[in-house]
Amino acid sequence: MTMTPFDDAAHKVAEFLLQIKAIKLQPEQPFTWASGWKSPIYCDNRKTLSYPQIRTFIRQQYVNVINEKFGKPDVIAGVATGGIAQGALIAQDMGLPFVYVRSEAKKHGLTNMVEGVVEKDQSVVVIEDLISTGGSSIKAVDALRAQGCNVKGMVAIFTYGFDEASENMKKANCPLTTLCDYNTLIEVALKHKYITEGDLEPLKQWRLSPSTWNQ
């Protein structure tokens, strides 16, 4: 099988995320998410910002994907909070305006949800760091569309690959591309001995039914 440059980059991103413990895999000692779900994986992609070489590589991959999939938009929009720093770096690289989208409208002042300047009919690419169910990401897309923007799509560092997220993105008519995904991560984690062959089955089972896993 011939690997594309994007496949190569996805493996490199996975390697970096594991190396700096932005993603931790612990099937034997699961994490508890805010939702109450038990999970063998924990992801904090904000850690990538603390490593200049990794931060630069990830920014370059975002820009490559945006140019390849969507062409140059008018504006880059980061989703609060994880997408703000990434989005600002990408906008700087591409010489584009930047805005960010709050998780909810401000309770005071202008009650903005979109912070920065966007104009009707401008094309926008939305930046996220992580996609789980996609719910908060789609709220950001809706807020931009409410301002009259043409949202071309979304790019994120990582996705768990839940069916619910795919369905939500499809319903929102928002194409999603990620630099790395769960299957690639597990493949790289096994290759570099972050996990064992025995960890594969529980990791696969969690991915199929995260809400009921390990109950």
Protein model, in words:
The chain is of the alpha/beta class. The chain has a single domain, classed as Rossmann fold (3-Layer(aba) Sandwich), CATH 3.40.50.2020. Helices cover 41% and strands 21% of the residues. It contains seven helices and ten strands. It has helices spanning 5-19, 52-69, 82-94, 135-146, 163-171, 182-191, 197-208; strands at residues 23-25, 31-32, 38-39, 41-43, 75-79, 98-101, 114-115, 123-131, 150-159, 176-181. A six-stranded mixed sheet has the order 7-6-5-8-9-10, sandwiched between helices. A two-stranded antiparallel sheet has the order 1-4. Strands 2-3 form a two-stranded antiparallel ribbon. Helix 1 (5-19) crosses helix 6 and helix 2 (52-69) crosses helix 3. The chain is globular, with a radius of gyration of 17 Å.
Question: How do the helices and strands line up, and which of them pair or pack?
Answer:
Blueprint: H1 5-19, E1 23-25, E2 31-32, E3 38-39, E4 41-43, H2 52-69, E5 75-79, H3 82-94, E6 98-101, E7 114-115, E8 123-131, H4 135-146, E9 150-159, H5 163-171, E10 176-181, H6 182-191, H7 197-208
Helix pairs in contact: 1-2, 1-6, 2-3
